[in-house]
Design goal:
Mean pLDDT: 80
Strand order of the largest sheet: 1-2-3
CATH topology of the largest domain: Substrate Binding Domain Of Dnak, Chain:A, Domain 2
Structural class: mainly alpha
Low-confidence stretches: 1-57, 447-452
Radius of gyration: 33 Å
Distance between the termini: 83 Å
CATH superfamily of the largest domain: Arfaptin homology (AH) domain/BAR domain
Number of helices: 14
Length: 465
């Protein structure tokens, strides 16, 4: 990372070969960042006055004052599947997207989400734009479609609760525009203006608000969030297994009850040598047949607990993981995008300066020297703009890091939901088990039809007669 504007060029850049310049010019610009233009920073401010929605609170604009409750209250968006429609060749999936904030309900396809995300990246390249789930054209089963619906819901809720995205026209269009051509509307709204750097009055002064040790802070924050991501990824995996076991337990309890019912419904006659015990067997079968109701209820309680933990625990963990992943993606965009472009531009500038020195020493024609001087001035302007973008990218990264920390208390929400689910699930199932116990009395018929209560089993698990 470079320091102040127009720092001395590194020795490696000065010693680069002319062939590197050709490679530099042939290297295409990064797709995820707008190409800087060679203009003076003062012209940037004059050309693109910032809209009021982009302004920060009074005081230090670098610092955010949001709470988790405020972010969650911005909007709650539901994404539900609607019945598949058959196209000419393939079926396609549509979603009903409903926003509490805009009191709207619109239909969207997966490709609409793709264009929406692209426009967010176009306008906010230095912010945490969540990733989308994969498209998977062919062979999409119900499980995949449901997982993708959940992921799309998490995506749009993270966007709708972001302090900047939530006030942008692109979000409002996506959540409320009911016309048939939403993709073109989204593109028109985003492409008629520049990105956040062009629309923020503070962009050219971003480095004035950054702490002196911003590089060290960035490295520490990135490592911390990487560790948090890894830990929460493991928590999510375990939570998924716990919820899955509850659902598997429900299936086993249901089958267990059905098998008891099947025994009770068996009409096979007893052989003559067992006729003395016919009344006992008949009573036992009748009792077993009635137990299937309680086991079905137990299965229902276990399935409810599993589903509740999927929705309240696993999904919240996935939401937080999606947010952390978007931060990791943002860090990569910073390093591979604006920072890399800045370093390449400095390298190209050093080569141009060498050419200028060589042209002067060789007494080339004035016209050729003037053209080279003009190119150097343009490159200096481009470097200055890139350096301003570099500092603005760090400025935004600093704020997005704060947002990650605002979301950290979501951990307590997740743990509370998990504990409450376990308490409620065990409480409800315990009640059913206790209600089931008295109905077992008729299963323990002793001599002369006297009822013998169940005993505590010995180590081998069998009761003595």
């Amino acid at each position: 990372m470079t320091g102040r504007a127009m720092d001395p060029l590194p020795a490696a850049a000065v010693g680069a070969t002319a062939e590197a310049e050709a490679d530099e010019e042939a290297d295409p610009p990064a797709a995820d960042l707008p190409t800087p233009q060679a203009i003076e920073p003062q012209a940037i401010v004059q050309q693109a006055p910032a809209p009021s929605r982009m302004q920060m609170p009074q005081g230090n604009p670098l610092l955010l004052s949001h709470t988790l409750q405020e972010l969650l209250a911005r909007d709650t968006v539901q994404v539900e599947l609607i019945p598949e429609k058959k196209g000419l060749f393939l079926k396609h999936v549509e979603y009903e997207v409903s926003s509490q904030r805009f009191k709207s309900s619109v239909y969207r396809r997966y490709n609409d989400f793709v264009v929406f995300q692209e426009m967010l990246l176009h306008k906010f390249p230095y912010r945490m734009v969540p990733a989308l789930p994969p498209k998977r054209m062919l062979g999409a089963d119900r499980e995949f479609i449901e997982a993708r619906r959940r992921a799309l819901k998490r995506f749009v809720n993270l966007v709708a609760r972001h302090p900047l995205f939530s006030e942008d026209v692109v979000l409002k269009l996506f959540l409320s525009f009911s016309g048939s051509d939403v993709q073109n509307k989204l593109k028109e709204s985003a492409q008629c203006v520049g990105d956040e750097f062009m629309n923020c009055k503070l962009a050219t002064r971003a480095k004035d608000f950054l702490p002196a040790d911003i590089q060290a802070q960035f490295a520490i924050s990135r490592e911390l969030i990487r560790n948090i991501y890894n830990s929460f990824h493991k928590l999510r995996d375990r939570a998924e297994r716990i919820a899955s076991r509850a659902i598997d337990n429900a299936a086993d309890l249901l089958i267990f009850g059905k098998e008891l019912s099947a025994i009770g419904s068996d009409t096979t006659p007893l052989p003559s040598w067992a006729a003395l015990n016919s009344s006992t067997w008949g009573s036992l079968k009748q009792a077993l047949k009635g137990l299937s109701v309680e086991f079905a209820l137990l299965a229902d309680k276990a399935a409810q607990q599993g589903k509740q933990e999927e929705n309240d625990v696993v999904e919240k963990l996935n939401l937080f993981l999606d947010l952390l992943q978007s931060y990791k993606d943002l860090c990569e965009r910073h390093e591979k995008g604006v920072l890399h472009k800045h370093q390449r531009a400095l390298h190209k500038y050093s080569l141009m300066k060498r050419q200028m020195m060589s042209a002067t020493a060789q007494n080339r024609e004035p016209e050729s020297v003037e053209q080279l001087e003009s190119r150097i001035v343009e490159q200096e302007n481009a470097i200055q703009t890139m350096e301003l973008r570099n500092y603005f990218s760090l400025y935004c990264l600093h704020q997005e890091t704060q947002l990650i920390h605002v979301y950290l208390p979501l951990t307590s929400h997740i743990l509370r939901a998990f504990v409450n689910s376990q308490i409620q699930g065990h409480k409800e199932m315990s009640k059913v088990w206790n209600d089931l116990r008295p109905k077992l009395s008729c299963l323990f018929a002793g001599p002369h039809s006297a009822l013998t209560p169940p005993c505590s089993p010995p180590e081998d698990g069998l009761c003595p007669h």
